[in-house]
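Protein entry
_____________
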Amino acid sequence: MNADQTSYYEPTIWPEGVIARYLTVGGAHVDITHQMNTLTPPEPYATLATCTACPATSEHNHHRLVWGLTSQYEEHHPDLADRDAREWAQAHAEKCRAMPRPEVTQ
């Protein structure tokens, strides 16, 4: 790249566990990860979308409550949770103007 050309996006190494990343208007990222807990390893229980510049987050549970005629039960749908998290992340990235915090150098 020549000195007179400007790069608007410089790829970085994604943090461990990030399965998708969206670039915000302000230059930060919205990272999507699977949330694990100690009660049900190794299966994740939720998909989490987190903005790296502002406090906005959105958690999408992998289990959906299904109502039958006489009972209710839970079904595991990680693909639906991932889809919902990606939709939220895209919408947030399109409007978030918060700038990422610069790295501290010494």
About this structure: The chain has one domain: 18-95. The two ends are 28 Å apart (CA to CA).
